């Protein structure tokens, strides 16, 4: 997984991006977005990690109710797409 954040000092805006690849380095899923009123480049990096980890945390909660382990290869299952979309929307809304 690659996660990064960027910061525009003049606009006080942080951007974030995350790319997840499989064991062969092939694309699985990506996300990108921005936050307003960010005061430092370090905070932009922390927010990028928070977004990526929030989706993983929700997926881990789903795992608590599974009777067996699940693995997805090739394209993400709808639960991952749903989680990423909701996490991004929530983070953008709540800042």
UniProtKB/TrEMBL annotation:
Q: Which domain of life is it from?
A: Eukaryota
User: Any signal peptide, and if so, which residues?
Assistant: none
Enumerate the InterPro entries for this protein.
RNase_H-like_EbsB-rel (IPR052929), RNaseH_domain (IPR002156)
Residues covered by the RNase H type-1 domain:
2-52
Q: Name one GO molecular function term.
A: RNA-DNA hybrid ribonuclease activity
A Pfam family matched by this chain, by name?
Answer: RVT_3
Protein name (database record): Aspartic proteinase-like protein 2
Q: Which organism is it from?
A: Pyrus ussuriensis x Pyrus communis
């Amino acid at each position: 997984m690659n996660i990064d954040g960027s910061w525009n000092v003049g606009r006080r805006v942080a951007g974030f991006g995350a790319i997840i690849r499989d064991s062969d380095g092939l694309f699985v899923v990506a996300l990108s977005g921005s936050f307003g009123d960010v005061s430092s480049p370090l905070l932009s990096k922390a927010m990028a990690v928070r977004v990526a980890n929030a989706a993983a945390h929700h997926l881990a909660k789903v795992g608590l109710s599974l009777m067996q382990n699940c693995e997805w290869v090739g394209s993400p299952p709808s639960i991952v797409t749903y989680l990423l979309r909701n996490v991004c929307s929530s983070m953008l809304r709540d800042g």
